[in-house]
Design brief:
Helix content: 10-25%
Strand content: 25-35%
Shape: globular
Radius of gyration: 15 Å
Distance between the termini: 24 Å
Number of domains: 1
CATH architecture: 3-Layer(aba) Sandwich
Largest sheet: 6 strands, mixed
Order of helices and strands: HEHEEEHEHEEE
Length: 163
């Protein structure tokens, strides 16, 4: 996740955040999130036979059969191979299998290419936004202070056909 969000040079993926410094996550912060949100699930895509983690996603039930999807990341060396689409579709199918009918996520407003990627996969902007949590070390150190999270959502109700 750190390489996907904050990588530099040859290890940087197309989804990197150049306007935020520091790690996106640490093992301690991830463990704390898992303990604080026991209904959430952190899923990883593991490549066999070596067991290397190639991608991950956080899924958490909200209210009214809606789920939050966050921290979707793929190894930058595997980006542009379809793994992100595959991981997103698998996450959506899992949400449906748990009774979910809608998925919501947030994207930093400066990430126009990533927003467009989600729109191509059936998500739409809700018009909701919230300020990026400046000073919250869980997200890194802002290099710009005008950032906002934009909310996107997708209907997964019956009749939804996952890609």
């Amino acid at each position: 996740m750190n390489r996907a969000y904050r990588g530099a040079g040859a290890s940087a993926g197309w989804t990197r955040e150049d306007y935020i410094a520091g790690d996106r996550i640490t093992e301690n912060l991830l463990r704390a999130d898992l303990l604080a949100k026991p209904r959430g699930s952190f899923m990883k895509w593991v490549v066999e036979p070596d067991g290397q983690v190639a991608g991950c996603v956080w899924l958490e039930p909200e209210k009214n059969r809606s789920w939050y999807l966050g921290s979707l990341a793929t190894d930058p060396d595997r980006q542009n191979t379809g793994l992100g689409r595959t991981l997103l579709a698998a996450a959506e199918r899992w949400i449906v299998s748990q009774g979910g009918t809608r998925v919501r996520l947030t994207v930093v407003d400066a990430r126009e290419t990533l927003i467009a990627w989600y729109v191509r996969r059936g998500y739409h902007l809700t018009g909701e936004s919230e300020p990026f949590p400046d000073g919250d070390e869980r997200f890194g150190r802002l290099l710009r202070h005008d950032l906002r999270f934009l909310f996107l959502e997708k209907n997964l109700a019956p009749g939804y056909d996952a890609p």
